Amino acid sequence: MNLRDLRYVCAVAEHRHFGRAAEACHVSQPTLSGQIRKLEVYLGVDLFERSNRIVRPTPVGEEIAARARILLQQAAEIERLAQAGRDPEAGALRLGMIATVAPALLPLCLPALRRRFPRLHPGFVEDLTDILLRRLADGELDGAVIATDPGDAGLKCLPLYSEPFLVAMPKDHPLATAERVAVADLKSVHLLLLTDGHCLRDQALEVCAMAVPPGQIDTSATSLETLVNLVGAGLGLTLVPALSVRPGWSTDPGIVCRPLDEAAARREVRLAYRTGFPRQSLLQQVAATIREVVPTALVTPGE
Amino acid sequence: MNLRDLRYVCAVAEHRHFGRAAEACHVSQPTLSGQIRKLEVYLGVDLFERSNRIVRPTPVGEEIAARARILLQQAAEIERLAQAGRDPEAGALRLGMIATVAPALLPLCLPALRRRFPRLHPGFVEDLTDILLRRLADGELDGAVIATDPGDAGLKCLPLYSEPFLVAMPKDHPLATAERVAVADLKSVHLLLLTDGHCLRDQALEVCAMAVPPGQIDTSATSLETLVNLVGAGLGLTLVPALSVRPGWSTDPGIVCRPLDEAAARREVRLAYRTGFPRQSLLQQVAATIREVVPTALVTPGE
DNA sequence: TAAACTCGATAGCTTAAACCTATGCATGAA
DNA sequence: TTCATGCATAGGTTTAAGCTATCGAGTTTA
After folding, report:
1. Are A155 and A272 within 8 A, CB to CB?
2. Contact at CB, A63 and B52, closer than 8 angstroms
3. Residues 258-297 of A with CB under 7 A from strand C
4. Pairing relation of β-strands B155-170 and A238-241?
5. Nearest nucleotide by C1' from A25 CA?
């Protein structure tokens, strides 16, 4: 049995005339007759009663035609669904972001994404890089904004922006007097870090060319916000990604941020996705949109 | 798009593996891959994400597979429906009967039909021959028990039984003394008839070789029962089909029935049906069943 | 009563497409 | 590096859906 066969049955049931039904189906009358006959043999029932002048559906034929009509409507529905799905800028797009990016980037890119892709329903998840990458690989996410090379096979990246680290310190800290901070000076200060798993923790340590300072585990924070408050309380210094710096910090917790003298003290923020993901062109446009809303100084040439 | 294609989509969505899905569909892997690819091109959407080691339905693919599953179930339902309809002894069978047959024949044949065709749901309509034949031709009835040649093109008949007419008269009527009544004697009696349209009226007149007796129109009855009561009241004589004779008549209205000396004074009761009717074999068995329950003396050799 | 007409069925052929086997190619594991 | 896995591609075969032409039963018209 076939969708075509069912179309033929419906046509004959409607027109009660093989010739006109064939015309409606855009096939010749013998073709339609043959297919109907074949279906009748296959089903083992007569669907139509062909007395000489008139064609009449049998009770079974009537019932089958009625159900076939419904079925064909649903088939058409599926095609319409596909048509809607053909628009890659429509539907849900599930994105992940690492915790040191999301609070700074979301307020910037969300309005832009809404404007640029009005039919898109973006969803956001904030988590550690490893967890985001696992969910991405599992198909739970369509993309993830991270700051490290995913390395993982089957994933690719689109560059978003290159973000320098700033040193955050209390207003009255000795290093705050200079315009820039020398990386070498950081070795002698008390560096506050995020908890394990945050890429920013590892990157901060790398910039300072330090291993985990023993005995500092108690000062690990779970968010940049907390970290900055700890700095304001005079517990130490920390590195803050440029995009996360807030003007309010200087007035409220009394924090100043100074750039480093090392140009390499930065992180590359990128959008990771599965190589097989079918809406890659959408992701490229999403990446472009994000680059547009990030301060131009940070944006890398892009793909 | 095709039912087969949808089956393939469901299989891949379920197994998440082209090879195993192909196996489940009893086709080779390239065949299945090709068909899926073709459907994707036709629909204009990727249904599956083939990253190297894993196959995953896209959101659209997932949705389409879910709907396809429902659709395929309904298609299977149609086939099951046909299978049930394949049994010609099941379902409704709409039969008509003329009014001078139904009251006598129904009580005889209904129990037998129920026993012989337990899955059949026979329905009965009692009306005049012409109306029954029109409804038969229109497809509102599947068969009609009548006592005349339908003549109408497109209809055929199965013989049921050959029914002699008896003369019904009051107990004390002069003709009641003889064992048989001579047809010639009927010319001089007052013959009571059914209203116009009943075949029995025409046949009674034919037996008596009479035209409509003028001035007798007021004595026309609409049922045999009434006619017999009129006879009992002494208003005249009438012809009664053998099967309609009731033993109670001799005690209650005081009627006797006598056979005629003319063997041709009878009617041929038959089952008419459309030549194109698909369940003719069922009708033949129904006719045979009716012949079995009619007193053997009346039954004709049959088809 | 014959001729024309209607309409579904049949015959014979053509073409499209579904299917097969064999092979390629990319990726991940030993 | 080699092997294994798994989907895609290539080329050829077969099924079946399609066509035109024609038949034949049953009506209608002349």
Report:
1. yes
2. no
3. 275
4. unpaired
5. D18
Residue A198: how many CB atoms within 10 A of its CB?
23
Residue whose entry in the numeric block shows the structure tokens 């012949």:
B291
Reported as a single tens digit per residue, the pLDDT across B81-128 is 887 788 888 888 999 999 999 999 999 999 999 999 999 999 999 999
User: Given an 8 Å threshold on Cβ–Cβ distance, is A45 in contact with B75?
Assistant: no
As to burial, measured by CB atoms within 10 angstroms (0-12 exposed, 13-18 middle, 19+ buried), residue B166 is buried
Distance from the Cα of B71 to chain A's closest Cα (Å) equals 6
Listed in sequence order, the DSSP H helices in chain B are 3-15, 18-25, 29-43, 59-85, 102-116, 129-137, 199-207, 224-232, 248-251, 280-293
Spatial distance between the Cα atoms of B129 and B148, rounded to a whole number of angstroms = 8
Tell me the whole-structure pTM to 2 decimals. Answer: 0.71
- Side chain identity at residue B284, one-letter code: Q
Write the burial class of residue A53 (CB in 10 Å: 0-12 exposed, 13-18 middle, 19+ buried).
exposed
The answer to whether the beta carbon of residue B29 comes closer than 7 angstroms to any atom of strand D is yes
Return d(Cα B157, Cα B89) in angstroms, integer.
20
For A33-86, write each residue's pLDDT tens digit.
999 998 998 888 889 988 767 888 988 898 899 999 889 888 888 887 887 788
Are residues B274 and A44, on separate chains, in Cβ contact within 8 Å?
no
